[in-house]
Amino acid sequence: MFKSSLVIFLLLGLSLLSIGVLYLSIDEFMPYHSEAVQADWSELDVNYQGLILGLLKALGGGAFVAGAATIYMAIMSFRRSPEPYMVLLPSVSTGYSALLCYATYTVQTSTPGDPPLLLTVIYVVMGLVASVLLTFSIRAHDVSQKHSV
Question: Are 130 and 86 in contact (CB under 8 A)?
Answer without folding.
Answer: no
